[in-house]
Amino acid sequence: MNKKKFKKQLQKYLPIIKIALALILVLLGEFLPIGKWWKLGIFIAALIVVGIEPLMESIEGFKARHVDENFLMLIAAIGAFVLGEYLDGVLVLLLNAIGEYFEHYAVNKSRNFISKLVEMRTPYANLIRGNEVVTVEPEELSVGDVIVVKVGERVPVDGVVVDGTTTLDTSALTGESVPRAIKEGDEIISGCVNSESVIKVEVRKKYEESTVAKILDLVESATSRKAKAENFISKFAAVYTPVVVGLAIIVAFVPPIFFGYTAESLKEWIYKALSFLVISCPCALVISVPLSFFRGIGLASKAGILIKGSNYMEKLAKLSTVALDKTGTLTEGKFVIDFVRPSGISEEEFLEIAGKIESGSNHPIAKSIAGDASSEEVSDYTEISGRGVKAVIDGSVCLGGNALLMEENDISFEKYDGVGSVVYFAKDGTYLGHIVVKDKIKDDSYDLKRSYTASGIKKIVMLSGDSNAVCAEVAEKLSIDEYHGQLLPEDKLNYLVAEKGKNKVVAFVGDGINDAPCLAEADVGIAMGGMGSDIAVETADVVIMEDKPTKVAEASKISRRTVKIATENIVFALSVKVAVMILSVLGIGNILLAIFADVGVSVLAILNAIRPMLKERKIK
Amino acid sequence: MEKKYKVTGIDCANCARKAERAVSKVKGVKSAVLNFFMETLTVEVDDENSEAILEEVKRVLLKNEPDAIIK
Fold first, then answer.
1. Helices marked H in A205-262
2. Closest to A60 (Cβ–Cβ): which among B37, B38, B66?
3. Other C-beta atoms lying within 10 Å of the C-beta of residue A221
4. How far apart are alpha carbons A224 and B32 in whole angstroms?
5. What Cα–Cα distance (Å) separates residue A534 from each residue in A224, A264, A528?
6. Beta strands A430-441; A421-427: pairing state
7. Taking CA atoms, which of A66, A299, A353, A497 is between 20 and 30 Å from A283?
8. CA neighbours within 13 Å on the CB side: how many for A41?
């Protein structure tokens, strides 16, 4: 056991030990006033220290029948050595080892960053079994079980609160820090942290179907869907190494033909060719481009935006038109009183009685009027389908409903034709007045125009089945460029097809319940409201956990930054490599420049790729 | 049929890329993605003879990356 631990520790520090040892040897060899043979001995020792691993890797490579970059690096080092450039030879491998060490460090850091998401998963759940509470794994829970979630614990599976009230911290899921108040009967999703008091929860979904498991699965497979840039790099890398090695051979043996086949010129050109071998690994590109996307997806997840693949990040980065559904996306999907028009009684009196009349109904419009009114005084209550309600209060027959209800009861009333939904009220055959309710626009929607414009989205369109009058009002309030009302579902679809035909990258944002076809048709389908609807999560390319339309701007912003970084890395790495080749042939650069360029490019590209995270840390 | 493996111990991104190419070329493999960062291998193989194909996938992967651990 101890031996194993020691071995593990040794493995961890081995690269550093090797680097340090080689560095000391190089310094000794270079600066000690010793004889020529001693120097050679010390440099050979240094070469062995840093050369063993590449040698092993090369042998492994040969076994799998491919030429490993390590082998090319090794040839470059030994070649320089043979040409009498001991220092150059050792430095090729030494700097390469330093570069690799850094690469490992950066990759591990990035992996940790993603695995932090995994923290949403709880290792255990407190199951109530008879009179006792037992600890089980979340996977063991079945639907209908009742579990206890203590303060500070995460909700293990999706369920319904059956006892207790508390507040939940949803930040791990949504990126939002405002806690959510929860009471008996509320549905809660896994991954939230219980922050106030103990609650009992009835399991509604098994672990595999719960939000947490779905999110983890989604993020995990997201980086396996490659972006175009990644596929390009993958193809490029496959031809890059052979081409550079071919160039190296040409550089080594062709020019000497023209400069005379002397030992001197041969030596000169072989030395130049070694620089080519040093930069023959496409490593900087192969690691930094996928790393950029990996980071991007991680960053977005942290903000409560689940992007299902790197390819969608590329599309989000080019987003020009965003079409949004109205009800439930830009608006709350809940009604509030817009204005009250009493007839013959005071507004206060009117609202009180209207509240009582509607207090028994579950209809969203009725609920918005009833507010907190109690139904205690209502002695007899009937709902009249398609019309409204009839309630007996203090012996008086009261009505609340649409124009049809009033007409059928021969009540003369003041008809309303404006924007919104209207409810008329009457008591004992006398008209009392009407109330107009409207769907409330989400607070977040007011920031739509500003945030979308800032993130580079050019056109915002609202698509709705509602009347044009309602749409016009919402569009004006939110400064939306274009709106289309009274649309049937297929009209929405046709709009998206037409817009895509204009060579624009189009996103559709909806709550996902009725608009699955639109989500599928758009270049990027964005479902809002988290894991609510399974169909939405399946069809959408991006899932936004929080009900906030401005998150689309954030998604676009993160994607634009990610793609920009990936492009920067491709251009930077390629130009440096080409520059090194040219300089080497011209005799201006040497093998040291090549190795510095190679390792330096890798390090800089990786730093560039993880830059967004570094920035984020600073903000916090 | 799609199958996902956890693969740890891959040395570098370029090694992963090469191993991915090698696995893609296995007969019966429709697509293969070796995700170096998530350390996962996702392969889609023909339904027929899938067991044997997956065995071959593992063998090819290990030949390319002897240090890899496939779970």
1. 211-222, 228-253, 255-258
2. B66
3. 17
4. 10
5. 22, 73, 12
6. antiparallel
7. A299
8. 6
Domain span holding position B36: 2-70
Residue A391's nearest CA partner among A376, A412, A404, A407 is A376
For B41-64, how does the pLDDT look when each residue is reduced to its tens digit (9 = 90+)? Answer: 989 999 888 889 999 999 999 888
Domains by residue range for chain A, with CATH = 142-205 (2.70.150.10), 305-331+442-561 (3.40.50.1000), 333-441 (3.40.1110.10)
Supply B66's token pair. 């002897």
Chain B, window 13-52: residues with a beta carbon less than 8 angstroms from a chain A beta carbon: 13-14, 17-18, 20-22, 33, 35-40, 42
- Mean pLDDT check: name the lowest of A255-264, A458-467, B59-68: A255-264
Percent of chain A residues topping a pLDDT of 70: 95
Say which CATH number the domain at B41 has.
3.30.70.100
CB proximity list for A596: less than 8 A, separation 6 or greater: A95
> What pLDDT sits at residue A619?
40
Mean pLDDT score across all residues of chain B: 88
Closest CA to A358 of A386, A342, A378, A341: A378
Pick the catalytic residue from A325, A511, A523, A598. Answer: A325
* Domains of chain B: total: 1
Interface ipTM: 0.85
> In chain B, which residues have their Cβ closer than 8 Å to the Cβ of A290?
13, 36-37
Tell me the pTM.
0.80
Identify whether the C-beta of residue B11 lies closer than 8 Å to the C-beta of residue A61: no
β-strand partners of B5: B41
Tens digit of each residue's pLDDT (9 = 90 or more) over A272-295: 899 888 888 888 888 888 888 988
- pLDDT grade for A512, boundaries at 50, 70 and 90: low
Among candidates A154, A162, A124, A116, which has minimal Cα distance to A141? A124
- Whose tokens are 């079994």? That residue is A129
| Residue A241 φ/ψ, nearest 5 degrees | -60, -50
For chain B, the distance separating the N- and C-terminal CA atoms, rounded to the nearest angstrom, is: 18
In whole angstroms, what is the distance from residue A249 CA to residue A251 CA?
Answer: 5
Q: Is B6 on the interface with A (CB under 8 A)?
A: no
A325 is catalytic: yes
pLDDT, tens only, A542-600: 999 888 899 999 999 999 999 999 999 999 999 999 999 899 888 887 888 888 888 88
- Which residues make Cβ contacts (< 8 Å) with residue A525, sequence separation at least 6? A507, A508, A518, A519, A539, A540, A541, A542
Output the DSSP codes for B21-34: HHHHTSTTEEEEEE
